[in-house]
Structure formats: structure tokens, C-alpha cells
Amino acid sequence: MADQTLHRTVERAAREDGDAPVVQPPATRSGVIGWLKGNLFNTWYNSVITLVLLYLLLQIIPGLIDWLLLSAVWEPATAEVCRAASGACWAFIHEKYRLILFGTYPYSEQWRPTLAVALFLGMILASCNRHFWKPWLALAWAIVLLICGTLMYGGVLGLTQVPTTRWGGLPLTLMLATFGLAVGFPLGIIMALGRRSHLPVVRLLSVAYIEIIRGVPLITVLFMASVMFPLFLPQGVSVNNLLRAQAGIILFAAAYLAEVVRGGLQAIPKGQYEAADSLGLTYWQATRLIILPQALRISIPPLVNTFIGMFKDTSLVIIVGLLDLVGSAKAALTDPAWRGFYRESYFFIAVIYFVFCFSMSKYSQHLEKRLNAGTRR
User: In terms of domains, do 148 and 172 share one?
Assistant: First the structure.
């Protein structure tokens, strides 16, 4: 409609001008056709790549849909029936989903981790709403964490005590990732500020911590925390294996987050520091009110990228004897009657990981758009 109106306007102006040529309206740049022309068929080589990828998708997608949906076994069935079918065996997920989601947590008590996960996710969703960013939110988190810990461990209020060695699946993954990032984030900010400090000792210690932790893989940190650390404790003193693994994840996350925050701090123009000095603000006042908020806003994309990476890296705790979501999926495959259905098991947990990671990605885009509202042109 807009193109037709523009065309009529141009023709009317040409008739009034007499000899002026009729200028045709520009090619379509909006809608589906405009998007395809601008993104997939804008050059000859992009057109070739698009056509090749479409051909590959047409070769892959029909078979994938047939395996996932059309030829799949949906109703509860035996392993023999699934092996005779040509599609996916979702009967395996129906049979083992509680083991995958909750690990070896007692079957009759699995309502407790279910309720704990629901409360945990509810608080995460509430924390994503800027209207709830009030001082009482910290108190709410403390209360919910106390309730979740009571539900998971038990031993009070008539709840059966369940040791941390029986925890696993999705609750363990969420707990390790959330606590690792929640505690590691402020520690990373401190390390980033320390690395840019003018005090030589503070800067040296911060650099040493960041470079040492970032110089080794997470597996090494978890191995040191779970296997080597107890060797340095006094005789008769022990620390829970889950707490040791959690401490290792916190230290590892803090080092990576420190470098992300440092990049945001270096992106702040020097004039911002000079403006803070001209206002007579102290170092901590300028950092808290002017520098750090801008640095964190700039660092949102790499911060969320680190969050997503750490959420997935919690699967490495299986090497220290903890059954997270991936470990529980592997444990479900050890049943002799259901061996061989690894594709269904890993596809199931892949969907769970995708939901959480995609949600974090979309929320970061929303938050970045909101916080950048005053800087867009």
C-alpha cells in the first residue's frame, strides 16, 4: 500500500512538472520477500549457499521428523517393542524420566526436589522482573533457599534425611550453576577492580588468581577441590563432596567473570572517571554510582555467554561422583533392559538445556534493550 501511494505521488508530480521523468519506487524492502532478498539472496554466492542449505535441510528434516514423531513409540512399551520400531523410543523416557530428572533421590520422596525446583525457578523468574528489584528480594531469596535446603536434605519436620550423595539430576544442576554464578559474580567484580587497582599488591594478587584459575580446565579445579583438598585437612576433618565441588565452580566462574567485567571497565571513556573526580566522589562512590553500572551494562552479552557456558559446564561434576542431569541420563542407560537408547536420553536432556540456555539468551537481549534505551539513537 505504501509503495502504491508513493508511485501515485511520483506520477502526479511528473504530470505537473511536464518533462520530469517518472521515477519508479524502490524495490520491496519489507515483508517476507524483502527479508529474503536482503538476508538470503542479496548476492550470488549467498544465494548459492542458501540453496545448498535448503537442499540439505530437505534431505535431513523428513527423516528426523519420521524418527522423532511418525515412527516413534509413544505409549508405554517394553524395550523389545522399541527395538522393533524404526523411530524413537519415548517409552524409555516415560520409564526413566524420574531417574533422569532426580537422580538416585528416593523415589517416594521425589515430591520434595520437585517442589524445591518449582520454588527455585519461581524466585529466578521473580528476580528477572525489574519491578521486584527491591531490598526485600534478598530476604525472599534467603527464605526460599532455606526452604529448598530443608526439603532436599530433610531431617526435620518429619522429613526423611537424604544425604547429598543421593542428590542428582536437574535440582543438582540448577543448584551448582545458580550458586556458582551468584557467588562467583561479586567475587569476579572484586577481582576485576583489583586487577585495575593502582595498589601493586592488590593488582598482583588479582592477576595471579585470575591467570592461574583461567590457565587450567574446570576438570582440574574440580579434581583438586574434591580429591586433593581433603589431603590437606587435619585428621578427622572432612568437607562434604558437594560443597567442595560447589566451591571449585565458584572459584572458576569468578575468574572468567572477572575478565568479562574488566573488559567492560576498560570500555568506559576516561571522561567518566574525570567527571566523577570533578564531582568530588570517592573511589568507591564513583565506582558504585557511575563506573560499575555502565561497565555491567556494556558487559551484558559476554556475561550471559559466560553464564550459559557455566550452566552447561556443571556436567563435568560427574568426574567427582556427582550425578547431575547428564550423569543421571547416563545412569538411566545402565539398566540392562534399556541399554542402547542413548539418543532418546541425550535428546531429552538436550531439550532441557536448550530451554534454560535459550531463556537466558532472550532475557539478556531484553535486558540489554531496556538498559540501552537512553543510549540508542
Answer: no
* Same domain flag for 200 and 273: yes
Residue 90, all three cell numbers:
519415548
204 pLDDT tier (thresholds 50, 70, 90): very high
Q: Are residues 98 and 212 in the same domain?
A: yes
Report yes or no: 102 and 110 within 8 Å, Cβ to Cβ.
yes
Answer yes or no: do 229 and 347 share one domain.
yes
**DSSP-derived secondary structure for 320-364:** GT-EEHHHHHHHHTTSGGGTT-HHHHHHHHHHHHHHHHHHHHHHH
pTM, full prediction: 0.82
- Pair (137, 225) in one structural domain: no
What range defines the domain where residue 145 resides?
107-161
Amino acid letter for position 219: I
Q: State the number of CA atoms in the 13 A half-sphere of 19 facing the CB.
A: 0
> Whole-angstrom distance between the N-terminal and C-terminal Cα of the chain?
28
pLDDT bucket at 10, cuts 50 / 70 / 90: low
Spatial contact of 361 and 308, defined as CB atoms under 8 Å apart: yes
* Secondary structure class of 168 (helix, strand, coil): strand
For the cut 70, the answer to whether the pLDDT of residue 222 exceeds it is yes
Amino acid identity at 151: L
Question: Residue 237 maps to which CATH number?
Answer: 1.10.3720.10
Residue 341, burial from CB neighbour count under 10 angstroms (0-12, 13-18, 19+): buried
